[in-house]
Design goal:
The protein is of the alpha/beta class. It is 27% helix and 24% strand. β15 and β16 form a beta hairpin.
Length: 333
């Protein structure tokens, strides 16, 4: 069982803090992938109230959650150009801007569609190669509303690589489109206001800078407390052996619910940290204490302001995005 708490006041704080720093420079909230586990529709509504009007989504699944919202636009990163019916539906909505990343989309998108051309300056994900951009641009502007162009930093903390990207993108797109963006959260931190706007995700959700406040907290409850004797083992493979007589708490979440089966994962509860005892199982994890600390119904923080996504990411050997999109978003009985 999960209890997910979303602190929308923290999201507002994060947006306002960034907006105060950048002024008229565009903050483009990234609400793809269910807004990094926070809920695409709710996050969009909050940020719309704060003044954001252009949002980044991935697919039609994201869009269907927000398609009825007025006075906002959505840049769709991965439209399914193999599905003509879907593309025509999206183009007819009026508030969808297509990521134009390959020539074959020219034959699929209806005339007059809104597009941003994606230039691959080094990420090597989707996007047209720099040498192909002039031809794509010329063909696109004769058929579509080319409202912008963008690229992406794969490693914004590398100033030499990133500066080459900025210079290349600028050379290709200068005086061709009204709106250009290459910045992500890390890019904004390192380089400030590059071009016309920045696609901001992780900073808005509370990570990347000390003054950003985490938005998402995920809790679960202890459902059983039992005594455990010195020398007894816990969970599969007997990886944990009780060093002394103590107490064991069972929490009904596991890797089926996004809590990875890794060592050294911790939870926070009632002012104390507890490491998981033994392997995390499919739908349960166990906590050990020498003291009689536990009680049935006690809340434990799996992710949140204490058990932060960036701390969990270090244990998981990954990035904070993964705990955010995984913990508390999986189906529960």
């Amino acid at each position: 069982m999960f209890k997910v708490i979303l602190r929308w006041d923290n999201l507002r704080h994060n947006y306002r803090t960034l907006k105060e720093e950048v002024g008229n420079y565009e903050i483009i909230p990234v609400v793809k992938a269910n807004a990094y586990g926070h809920g695409t529709r709710d996050a969009t509504l909050v940020l719309k109230e704060e003044g954001a009007h252009l949002f980044v989504i991935s697919t039609i699944d994201d869009y269907l959650r927000v398609k009825d919202l007025e006075d906002v636009d959505f840049l769709m990163l991965y439209p399914d150009y193999t599905d003509r019916e879907q593309v025509e539906f999206l183009a007819g909505q009026g508030n969808v801007i297509f990521n134009l990343y390959d020539f074959y989309a020219l034959e699929v998108l209806p005339k007059g569609a809104r597009v941003h051309i994606n230039v691959d300056t080094g990420m090597n994900r989707v996007g047209v190669k720099p040498e192909e951009f002039p031809r794509l641009y010329e063909e696109a502007k004769s058929k579509f509303r080319v409202e912008g162009a963008y690229s992406h930093f794969p490693i914004a903390k590398d100033p030499e690589f990133s500066r080459r990207q900025i210079e290349l993108f600028d050379t290709l797109t200068r005086d061709k489109v009204p709106f250009r963006h290459i910045n992500n959260s890390e890019g904004l931190l390192h380089y400030g206001k590059v071009f016309d706007g920045a696609r901001i995700g992780i900073l808005l959700y509370g990570y990347g800078r000390p003054d950003m406040k985490p938005v998402k907290t995920v809790l679960s409850k202890i459902v059983q407390v039992k005594r455990i004797r010195k020398g007894e083992s816990v969970s599969y493979d007997r990886r944990f052996i009780a060093p002394e007589d103590g107490f064991l708490a069972v929490v009904p979440v596991g890797y089926a619910h996004g809590v990875r089966r890794v060592e050294n994962y911790r939870v926070f509860s009632e002012g104390k940290w507890y490491e998981v005892a033994g392997h995390i199982t499919m739908d349960a994890l166990m906590l050990y204490s020498r003291e009689n600390d536990f009680h049935v119904g006690q809340w434990v923080e799996l992710l949140g302001e204490n058990n932060r996504a960036d701390h969990i990411a270090r244990i998981w050997s990954t990035v904070p995005y993964e705990p955010l999109v995984e913990i508390g978003t999986h189906p529960i009985w």
